[in-house]
Amino acid sequence: MIGVGVGTIFIALTFNTAGGSSFFSGGLETAIEDPEIPPGTALAQKCAQPGVVNCFGFDSANALHYAWPARTVCDEAFKGQRNQQFGRDREGSGNTFAVVQNDQCVFPEIDSKTFHSGFGSLKITIPFNSSADSGGYFSEVFKRNRDGRPLGTYIGPESPWGKVLYFQFYQKFDNDFLSTDFRCLEGDCGGWKQAIWYGNPPNGNSASSLEVTLNNGWQRGVPQVYGQIGADYYGVQDVRGCIYNRGANATGSGFESRVNYSEPPCIRYKADQWMEFTGRIEIRGENNQPASRVQLWVDGKLAVDYNQAKIDWAGSSGNGFGQFLLSPYHTKKDGSQVHPTGHTWYDDLIISTQPISMGDVVN
Predict the structure, then answer these.
(1) Strands 109-111 and 121-126, how do they pair?
(2) Any idea which architecture 3-352 has in CATH?
(3) Of 210, 213, 236, nearest to 303 (Cα)?
């Protein structure tokens, strides 16, 4: 089921890792066992470091298990395949959701020609005449056993894995995607998303009070982070002196405001190259109080450092962070807009309880 929140997506999917995703030894050990991650690469070295929970190389189509809206054109697109079941408990085998846009079935896929490392990456297409969930999405729990069942792994105050989450992934954007001034219904666009970190199953929800989201805030052209469906605002890139700025054209938000967020001091999205996003989320203080710390580095440079984040780890949305979602979802995107077809790619995603080396050199 998909539903639109104020600033994110409501989803619940499941996944069976028997088809090519990463496996790790039981307990809290972190021995990497995915033969599809080429040995000797920076990703393989990083994934062998202490504290690593899981890695996703997006090198094989076997790692994607599709779910799609039944009785649509997607039935023909996936003819002969099983429509994977999904649910809040994530006991099924779906992890990649297809959507119908402009009377066509659109879905994430493995691109064997474009990758940061290895043999492929996760490619998502943003077609013209597409609405909010323009290209579908990929979602997964942090860790599964060899049978593909969730291990209940989460990062939170009562977890044996601790209460500090580290993540890293690489993302590439083509120029058609970055240079498009998207239109939205009912006012200004909040900006497309990159990734969402949210609560563990069975109660985790990507639009909730237990959520941290990376996005192109208000189409300013700079990576930002927010929590709790946008109600917990972390600023622009305030730690760099890149703050809300109306500038000479009196426009602090929207596509036209991009000229007011120059680099430096801001770190902007860059077309046609791989960008590295590394994050740290430390749950601190009492439940849902402005005490937690969220940090984001872009290409090794600190972009966000917010120490008053609210994390609702004792509410109805989970005990801590246990799932993630990758999607260029754009709330209230106008499906009637004809714009260039854009693309974005994801690769080399790491989840850990310890710091992750930045760049391609492992420290």
Answers:
(1) antiparallel
(2) Sandwich (2.60)
(3) 236
User: How far is it, in rounded angstroms, from Cα 315 to Cα 55?
Assistant: 28
Domain ranges for the chain, please list them: 3-352
pLDDT tens figures, 133-149: 999 999 999 998 888 88
Give CB contacts under 8 A, 24+ apart, made by 89-92: 89/14, 89/150, 89/201, 89/202, 90/12, 90/13, 90/14, 90/15, 90/141, 90/150, 90/201, 90/202, 90/323, 91/14, 91/149, 91/150, 92/13, 92/14, 92/15, 92/16
CA distance 161 to 236: 30
**Nearest-CA neighbor of 162 among 139, 142, 140?**
142
d(CA 53, CA 207): 23
CA distance 298 to 214: 11
Q: What is the pLDDT of residues 270-312, one digit of tens each?
A: 999 999 999 999 999 999 999 999 999 999 999 999 999 999 9
Q: Which amino acid is at 234?
A: Y
How far is it, in rounded angstroms, from Cα 50 to Cα 8? 32
Token duo for residue 267: 């770190």
Q: What's this model's pTM, rounded to 2 decimal places?
A: 0.91
Q: How far is it between the farthest Cα atoms of the chain? A: 58
Query: Do residues 136 and 107 make contact, with C-beta atoms less than 8 angstroms apart?
Result: yes
